[in-house]
Amino acid sequence: MRFGLGVLNVIKVICFANEIIIFARYILMNEEDIMLAYTYIEHGKFELQEKARPEIKDSWDAIVRVTLGSICTSDLHIKHGSVPRAVPGITVGHEMVGVVEQVGADVTLVKPGDRVTVNVETFCGECFFCKHGYVNNCTDPNGGWALGCRIDGGQAEYVRVPYADQGLNRIPDTVSDEQALFVGDVLATGFWAARISEITEEDTVLIIGAGPTGICTLLCVMLKKPKRIIICEKSPERIRFVREYYPDVLVTEPENCKEFVLKNSDHGGADVVLEVAGSDDSFHLAWNCARPNAIVTIVALYDKPQLLPLPDMYGKNLIFKTGGVDGCDCAKILALIEEGKIDITPLITHRFPLNEIEEAYRIFENKLGGVIKVAIYK
């Protein structure tokens, strides 16, 4: 289709006028209406931008001033294009704690001034899946992993949290922001994984991967008091970390893992395997190190499809349980932290202000300086 020059000039004028209107609105905003927000621009690119502070959109919403956030491997998956549902232009980040600034008319469980954890998942609490505890599958349009993926997240100064009565949990006065930082995501993931894995005190449990989610999974598996726990990890720094903080846990490297598990188990393999590393090799290792009739829980998020070599598995009669997390145990986790039964603070190895988040990402993504987790503060 061809347009005359006159029509094209009109289109240019309209576009220019729209740009002027947007710019004028930005100029007229008060300084307190603007915030810094780390934003998904396009495949491979995040950028720290100035954005308008979020506002209440629904009576179930809350606005939270973010006091502490973190970077998750899932944020890197968005950056690398492994999360196709992620929306360009959104503020990334789904690991955060903060202070409630404002609530909608129907919010009853939190109030302005409360310190809160923010759940990675948005869930209504009323649909079939929510009522059965499967909140990751909430049927609300924003249900499941929405924050920092499909709606604006928390690597910012403020965040709007839908269904705040479900998505926020008050932090006990004796629990610090750092102690509570991972409750809504990686710690909830570890707790969920340990819960669905049906671990008993007679079991040998193999955890593949000692990254942040792997360590949080380890902390929650330890609550089950199995007979023995084996961690498989290839990073020398992370192996040292496990040996320093969790000396009763057995450690092996991937190339020796199967032989090590056979030597340190009672029935020809691990009774329960939790796969938290998320690579082709680790997926293969998980089912290969499991004893017949074992439970294999897939905790990791993979960058690409995995092969299920059923002929090789024939006769093992394995039970596979797959993600993602149902983050409905945050109140229980906070209580365990308050009781001193879970301590995640050793995982925070680096701290950066929000205006240096680019450097924080560089260190986390490239696993520099022995990084486990990064805390981002305002």
Itemize the secondary structure elements and their pairings.
Blueprint: H1 5-28, E1 34-42, E2 45-52, E3 62-70, H2 73-79, E4 95-103, E5 115-118, E6 121-122, H3 128-131, E7 144-145, E8 158-161, H4 164-167, E9 168-170, H5 177-180, H6 186-196, E10 204-208, H7 212-222, E11 228-232, H8 236-245, E12 250-252, H9 257-263, E13 270-275, H10 280-288, E14 290-298, H11 310-313, E15 319-322, H12 330-338, E16 348-353, H13 357-365, E17 373-377
Parallel strand pairs: 10-11, 10-13, 11-12, 13-14, 14-15, 16-17
Antiparallel strand pairs: 1-2, 3-4, 3-8, 3-17, 4-5, 5-9, 6-7
Helix pairs in contact: 6-7
How is this structure best summarized?
The chain has 378 residues and is α/β, with parallel strands linked by helices. It is built from 13 helices and 17 strands.
Overview of the molecule:
With 378 residues, the chain is of the alpha/beta class. The protein folds into two domains: 29-184 and 343-377, Quinone Oxidoreductase, Chain A, domain 1 (Alpha-Beta Complex); 189-322, 3-Layer(aba) Sandwich (Rossmann fold). The chain has 13 helices and 17 strands. The chain has helices at residues 5-28, 73-79, 128-131, 164-167, 177-180, 186-196, 212-222, 236-245, 257-263, 280-288, 310-313, 330-338, 357-365, and strands at 34-42, 45-52, 62-70, 95-103, 115-118, 121-122, 144-145, 158-161, 168-170, 204-208, 228-232, 250-252, 270-275, 290-298, 319-322, 348-353, 373-377. The strands form four sheets. Strands 3, 4, 5, 8, 9, 16 and 17 form a seven-stranded mixed beta sheet that branches. Strand 14 (290-298), helix 11 and strand 15 (319-322) form a beta-alpha-beta unit. Residues 1-5 and 10-15 have low confidence and may be disordered. Its cofactor is Zn(2+). Keywords: Membrane, Metal-binding, Oxidoreductase, Transmembrane, Transmembrane helix, Zinc. It holds the Pfam family ADH_zinc_N_2. Belongs to the zinc-containing alcohol dehydrogenase family. The chain crosses the membrane at residues 6-28.
